[in-house]
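Much of the work behind modern protein science is quiet bookkeeping, done one molecule at a time. The fold becomes a row of whole numbers, each drawn from a learned catalogue of backbone shapes. The protein below has been through that process, and both of its lines are reproduced in full.
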Amino acid sequence: MPNYQTPGVYVEEIESGSKPIEAGATNIVGFLGVAEKGPVNQATLVTNWTQYTKIFGGLHEGGWLGHGVYQFFQNGGTKCYINNLAEPKLKKGEVSQKNGDKAAEKADEPANSVKYEVKNPDNIAKLIIGKDEGVGKKSGLHLFDEIQDISLICAPGVTDPAAQDAILTHCEKNRFRFAVLDSPETLDGGIDTMPMPRDSIMGAYYFPWGQMYDMVADQNIYAPPSGGICGVYGRVDSTRGVHKAPANELFKTALGLKYNLT
């Protein structure tokens, strides 16, 4: 209650009734994968491609995280969290200064300015599944448990069945999250031979890979579609609303398909 010091007529507005319910974000993505540089095993908020390149580097061989995040922002995505699963191997001439979970760094440069020779490790599924050993000791998917804003989970190019099953389980456990999964790039036989994840209402599986321009390689390549699909989700939710299915929408980074479907 205001404390009026002098005589006079005052107008005081008092709120009555319930406030309208604000819509929660439905297009914030949690990305997992291998980046070119930057912090490891941390959930880092990124809001544009330029910010991503400053922290994690750009497109690079050995992992599809950069390609996925690039397609995400190009197709209308606005906000995501990055969990870099890289196990860095220092380039020649760099000095290791590991301290706990901090990335190795040059003696005269900050950790997120050092580039590493990285690739998707053979134990990518184990890194995605991660561990939960209490506060400050979480890794993999568990880093996203306490970030309530995340509504989509994506690991671009990761087709390991154990990893995809872990992502689906994570989304089912958190109830309001949705998994966006990639199919393998190539098929040994017909489409009926394609490996499929288990059925779940909390995930979608996308085939085939799409062609995009790789600025680093300076050529068109085939890349997993999941990152761009998440961007389309975000664009549709922002411009049309969550009631509109993200179907029959323009995929802005796609130049072609690995397999033509009829």
